[in-house]
Amino acid sequence: MDPISPLEQALHAARALVLADLVAGEVAEADVVSLVEDSIVQRRWWVEQWPDGVAYLPGLVAQDVQDALLDRYGRWPLCPVCGTGDPHALDVEPELGPDPHWVCHKAGVKVASVGALGAATGGTTSS
């Protein structure tokens, strides 16, 4: 059996991080998981074209899934920090960079790293 390539390892890691956040938000239904798979397919092609972008995969997959969920279901993930006012989604920062995290621009705080939303929301986390 061939060893798993660094690209496949990075794609699997990005998938696992975003799935952990979906599980934490209790939105990991089959159709939502398929959105993650769609993003992985697209990002595999993207990173084959730009190998230096491999470190950006977790943030990009998180943004892809967030955008797809917005189109179909509404905002995700909702901010666990702000208890008042209109519910709003967290954003991924940096938009294109390593070590992505979820931030609340309203409160100006970093809420959690991508993949660690469970710890920030009182749910479970994979780490």
Helix content: 40-55%
Query: Strand content of the residues, in percent?
Result: 5-15%
SSE run: HHHEEEH
User: Would you report the number of β strands?
Assistant: 3
What assembly state would you assign to the polypeptide chains in this entry? single chain
Arithmetic mean pLDDT: 91
Main sheet overview: 3 strands, antiparallel
Question: How far apart are the first and last residues' alpha carbons, in Å?
Answer: 28 Å
Overall 3D geometry? globular
Evaluate the radius of gyration.
14 Å
Give the uncertain stretches in residue-range form: none
Helix tally equals: 4
Strand order of the largest sheet: 1-2-3
How would you sum up this structure, described in words?
By secondary structure, the protein is mainly α. Helix content is 47%, strand content 9%. The protein has helices at 6-24, 30-49, 57-72, 117-121; strands at 91-93, 101-104, 109-113. It has a three-stranded antiparallel sheet with strand order 1-2-3. Strand 2 (101-104) and strand 3 (109-113) form a beta hairpin. Helix 1 packs antiparallel against helix 2 and helix 2 (30-49) packs across helix 3. The longest helix has 20 residues, at 30-49. The protein starts with 5 loop residues before the first helix and ends in a 6-residue tail after the last helix.
Q: What are the defining features of this structure?
A:
127 residues, mainly alpha, 3 strands, three-stranded antiparallel sheet
In short:
This protein has a three-stranded antiparallel β-sheet with strand order 1-2-3. It is mainly α and 127 residues long.
